[in-house]
Structure formats: structure tokens, C-alpha cells
Design a protein that fits this description.
The chain starts with 6 loop residues before the first strand and ends with a helix. Helix 2 packs across helix 3. Residues about 135-140 have low confidence and may be disordered. It has a single domain, classed as Alpha/Beta hydrolase fold, catalytic domain (Rossmann fold, 3-Layer(aba) Sandwich), CATH 3.40.50. It is an alpha/beta fold. About 35% of the residues lie in helices and about 20% in strands.
Amino acid sequence: MPGDPIVEQRRIEVGGAQVAYAVSGAGPPVVLVHGLGGSGRWWRRNVPALARSFQVYVVDLVGFGRSRNGGPFALATAEATMLAWLDALRIERTAFIGHSLGGRIVAEVAAMAPGRVSRLVLVSPAIFPDRRRLATSAVDLARSWRHTGPDFLPVMAFDTLRANPIAYLRAAHELLTTDAESQLGRIVAPTLLVWGERDLVVPPVIGARLNRMLATAEFVVLPDTGHSLMWDRADAFNRLALEFLLREASDGEE
């Protein structure tokens, strides 16, 4: 669209891995982290709106997107890698928006280093393990495509197919078998939980459970949309995210 902020594509070495990221806009920083098998392209419909008020950093996790040749992905060290990336860019404190796997990672960053996170937007984050779903998760993912916009499916398929397969399988297994629940009590950043009503991958009941556990959380369910709500309901999501993120500045003026 005319007038959209310029997007700069960059790379930086973090712990021996090349991490690709994009930067656009000006203002307080906000970092966007994609879901399993994804890339920064999943935020294509959100960056222009956010970049009019913020300096937006869209990172490709190691093993995925343009960072897929940067080394193996490991969920156990992903939050430490994210903090090292912030250090390399000299970002002392930032807001985060994370989707699915990315939501799990940024939640762990907020728990591990609460002083580095100003606000947190978690989009259907894969927080809780469910070993019973190991056999059904692929089926649920396939079923969820019914509630995904047809223009997102080629983006998702391309990113998934080009991802490092070891990184993808390892991340999927770790999401379903490891537990982040014990860390949630350390999150102090104001948090917005956003779910799709028809999300079959991470159902809204998970959001309700997470909302009860986080003292500073708000919980919003968008109707008639699934797991990729930031794409499928971009206008509604952008309004929610901007209102929530901009609230920090007004809170500071009180």
C-alpha cells in the first residue's frame, strides 16, 4: 500500500547462528515471532499497521524462514537465543507479539527476564503440553485448514516445506511434551491473549485456562476464525494489538 513503512531485511550472528530479521517503522520496539514451521511472512498483514506507531522487528526463528540454515532449533534454548538477539541489537526493553510456538517462546522470555518485556501479546500460544495429542495433532492441524483463509494456505505450505525438517519435527515434539506452566507465575508484563473461536490446533479453552493463571492478562476470542487469526482477521487483530500496545504510553503519563 502507498505510504507503508519501508522494510529492511537484515541478518546478525547470535551464538554461532545466523538470525534473519526485518525492521520497519519508528518508535518504541515491538518484536514479532512466528509459529511452528513459519516465517516472518506470517505477519505481512500486521506489520504496516504496527509500524506506523512502533519500530517493528520481525524475526525468523533459527531453523525456519530465512534463518533455516542458521543451525538447529531447540525449544529449550530458544528464549536464551532471543535474549541474546536482543542484546546483539542493543534492545533493552521491548513489547513482544508471538503466535503459537512463537507465543510459547516470548512467554518464556517474559518469565526469564521480566525487566526486558514491556507488554506481551500472545496469539494462540502453545503453552501447555498434551502428550495425548501426539497421535492426533497432525489430524487437528489438517482439520484446522477449514477455518484458514485460502490465501494463507500457500504461504503456510511453502514455509513448512522449506523449513529444516529436523527443526520442525524437534519443535513439534518439544511443544507437545515439555511444560512451560511452572514459569507462568513469573510473568509480570501486561498480557493480551488473543484466540480464534474455531482454533482446533490450540483451542480457546487453553486461552481461558491461561487467562486464569496470569494476573495481568486480558482474554479476547475473535469469532469465526482459526489458528492463523492475525492473517485471517488482520484488521480486527491489528486494532486489538495497537490499542493494547499503545496503552503503555498512556499508562506512563498517568
